[in-house]
Design brief:
Helices cover 12% and strands 54% of the residues. It is mainly beta and 270 residues long.
Length: 270
């Protein structure tokens, strides 16, 4: 009997180890670990030749390859629907849209749903702003953004007010046709400068080929301007003044990701 107990003790440790080792692959086979990241998204705008552009934002969603449910669509958490004057979010001011955990994967689309309570204020005159997109799907913006696991991602949604408001023919009715860009400051560059004298609003366009990719205003009495979210490349910059009757062009302006291209002081009196 003593000999049997001694023999049993010699097998006790291996007998305890074997069940634990067998349980490890069983756990890995039955569970799939999904890694997520932090996504911070803000709404920004550039100055425009209006006193206010009030937009009735109802819902914002992102489509990702990192989730199968709901066809990959994720509604932004924490966003409060309402009417926002997007011109308030210029010069470093931002509207926080979301700060949330987001699955790793590729974001392929952004969906923006806008209601009917939109208006425009021009020199103290308020006008209704008709929403040109009446579909239930809202406005779809195609994007190509990689969300890496375990990383904080900061992105900005630029609602370009100066190009999003269009006059309808001879009626004078103002139509909302949103021009949107989704970008990261780290993955794009910026263009800045100062227009003197600051006696009128001056429109600044960033042009690639024949296409305007971004725009802003150097507003009256505030001569400095900053246009963020420009992809790396070579551009043409135009300054438009005096009701579109005069223009100044800068050719072959190089924009580098993560850097600010400073055009310096631009004199309108030369």
């Amino acid at each position: 009997m003593a000999q049997f107990n001694k023999l049993l003790k010699s097998f006790r440790i291996p007998l305890l180890i074997i069940p634990v080792m067998l349980s490890v692959p069983a756990c890995n086979d039955s569970e799939e670990i999904v890694q997520s990241s932090r996504l911070v998204l803000s709404l920004v705008d550039s100055p425009a030749d209006y006193e206010a552009v009030n937009i009735d934002i109802r819902e914002i969603s992102l489509k990702t390859t990192g989730m199968k449910e709901n066809n990959g669509w994720i509604k932004l958490e924490g966003f409060e629907p309402g009417v926002y004057n997007i011109l308030e979010f210029t010069g470093g001011h931002e509207l926080k849209l979301a700060d949330m955990e987001f699955p790793a994967g590729k974001i392929t689309q952004l969906q923006l749903k806008i209601g009917s309570d939109n208006s425009l204020i021009i020199r103290d005159y308020t006008s209704n702003l008709l929403n040109s997109n009446n579909s239930s799907s809202g406005i779809l913006l195609n994007v190509d953004i990689d969300i890496q696991p375990g990383v904080n991602h900061y992105y900005k949604l630029d609602f370009d007010a100066s190009r999003s408001v269009v006059a309808l023919g001879k009626t004078g009715q103002m139509i909302l046709k949103p021009v949107l860009r989704l970008f990261s400051d780290d993955e794009t560059g910026s263009v800045t400068g100062k227009v003197l004298p600051a006696s009128e609003n001056v429109l600044i366009n960033v042009i690639e080929g024949s296409k305007i990719v971004a725009s802003s205003y150097a507003t009256k009495n505030v001569s400095a301007f900053l246009i963020p979210g420009i992809d790396e490349g070579i551009y043409r910059i135009s300054l438009v003044m005096n009701n579109d009757s005069e223009q100044i062009f800068f050719e072959n302006i190089e924009v580098v990701n993560g850097k600010v291209k400073d055009l310096g002081i631009i004199s309108l009196e030369d």
